[in-house]
Amino acid sequence: MSWLNRVRQSIASITKRETPDNLWHKCAGCGQMIFVKEYEENQSVCPKCNHHGRIGPDARFNDLFDSGVYTLLPIPQVTEDPLKFRDSKRYTDRIKAARTATGETDALINAKGTIEGYKAVVGIQDFAFMGGSMGLGVGAAFVAGVEAAIAERSPYIIFTAAGGARMQEGILSLMQMPKTTVAIAKLREAGLPYIVVLTDPTTGGVTASYAMLGDVQIAEPGALIGFAGQRVIESTIREKLPEGFQRAEYLLDHGMIDMVVHRHDLRARLAQLIGYLAPAKAA
Hints:
By secondary structure, the chain is of the alpha/beta class. The protein folds into two domains: 1-51, no CATH class; 54-277, 2-enoyl-CoA Hydratase, Chain A, domain 1, CATH 3.90.226. It is built from eleven helices and nine strands. The strands form two sheets. A seven-stranded mixed sheet has the order 3-4-5-6-7-8-9, sandwiched between helices. Strands 1-2 form a two-stranded antiparallel sheet. It starts with a helix and ends in a 6-residue tail after the last helix.
């Protein structure tokens, strides 16, 4: 073997020990590269530009509940693929792929625990699961979360993140809008608070139903919140929309939500609200 081939082989062996792909995170806000460990320790908030990244149920629950201790609620069983839907792929294949990628059964997960000593039932929508889309599973999980809150005599807190209704379930997905609205009415009849935390993005039929019916409406900084997309609205009304339209800060300025709260302050703010609205602490 020539010396040149030996050099080439040694170089090849070095390239196999390249930096792992998951060591760095590129911020979607400023484009800066951040150590993943630093990013996750900062609750997936960019330390340079304060951009709030999207996070899943596990991280949310760990950050929110006291000592990261919580109990997951059972996942309601619903009919899968009720319309036998197929586009470029079968709907059942899309569900399997989403479950493999996220480890979740559907886009809404409920858990119960305490937040600074106050009992709470919390629902988290995961945008990573088919865009957080609302179908039979999400509707059933939302109702189950409300029923658990009534049984626990605690508030129900929902973290929304969705592209809207799930198109593969057609009219059945749209029927979840009145279904969840009735569940909220039952929660109010029980005298219990319903708190909504709007995260990026919250759009479509979710915005048109349970996402905008909270007793208190909170949003994370910079979250996209709306019904139709900006380009659709502009082409419909034939006007240019204002800068920052459909962002959390714009909605706050125009009275659509009650407050914009940084992720680092969210746990304390929720505890404060629960203390005002449902002051009994867990035994």
